[in-house]
Design brief:
By secondary structure, the protein is of the alpha+beta class. It has eight helices and nine strands. It has a single domain, classed as 3-Layer(aba) Sandwich (Aminopeptidase), CATH 3.40.630. It is globular. The protein starts with 9 loop residues before the first helix and ends with a helix.
Length: about 220
């Protein structure tokens, strides 16, 4: 007798993340999700912040972009799922969007929005459990928008006492900002410790504190 596949719910998603797993679809049009538990895991160390180029720091602090958090989660995940130059397809299917939007409504998933002249031009989203933040995806419609979102995220996580920023995989882009790759066992030790940390998500931190944190990177 065949067994029915286990229904994936927001609650199951949180248990999976807490165990070190994360879901992906094979493509935008796929109807199936796969759980990944890679042998090597990318993380962005938070104890010393990003490797932040001076030019990018100036851009973040210049006021060129309006940066918010949790103001348009559906818009951010839709931006991450949309085709982009050099990326005709994504791993974010309709079920991923539905599940993560439900997690956002529960207060367990968050977004960073980057706007220029009122238009959403970049952002990122992810899941949090305790002091761990699991970065899922980011997008950029103009130069620097996703980088600005990453800086804003790291600043908020540092202010809130987070100890782990999971990037899933290490890319050349993230490595330039200080991301590193860890063996699965080491990652899971860090994860176990991080999810027990009583961190706080700062959606709207004091602007002076946020600026000081960015200048310290």
């Amino acid at each position: 007798m065949s067994r029915r596949p286990l229904e994936i719910t927001p609650e199951l998603m949180l248990r999976a993340y807490g165990a070190g797993l994360f879901p992906m679809a094979e493509g935008r049009g796929s109807t199936k999700l796969h759980w990944l538990d890679p042998a090597l895991r990318g993380i962005m160390p938070l104890d010393h912040g990003l490797h932040l180029p001076r030019r990018l720091r100036r851009t973040v602090l210049s006021g060129r972009f309006a940066i918010t958090a949790d103001q348009d989660f559906p818009g951010v995940i839709a931006g991450c799922a949309a085709p982009a130059p050099g990326r005709a397809d994504t791993w974010i299917n309709a079920e991923i969007e539905t599940l993560f939007t439900a997690l956002h409504r529960m207060g367990a998933a968050h977004s960073i929005e980057v706007r220029q002249d009122g238009a959403l031009v970049g952002g990122l989203y992810g899941v949090r459990i305790g002091g761990a933040f699991f970065g899922e995806s980011m997008f950029s419609r103009i130069t620097d928008a996703s980088k600005v979102a990453l800086v804003a995220l790291v600043a908020r996580l540092r202010l809130g006492g987070f100890t782990l920023l999971d990037t899933q995989f290490l890319t050349a882009h993230l490595a330039r900002f200080g991301a590193v790759e860890l063996p699965k066992a080491e990652y899971k030790r860090l994860l176990e410790a991080a999810i027990g940390v009583p961190a706080r998500w700062w959606a709207s931190p004091d602007p002076a504190l946020l600026e000081a944190e960015i200048r310290a990177m």
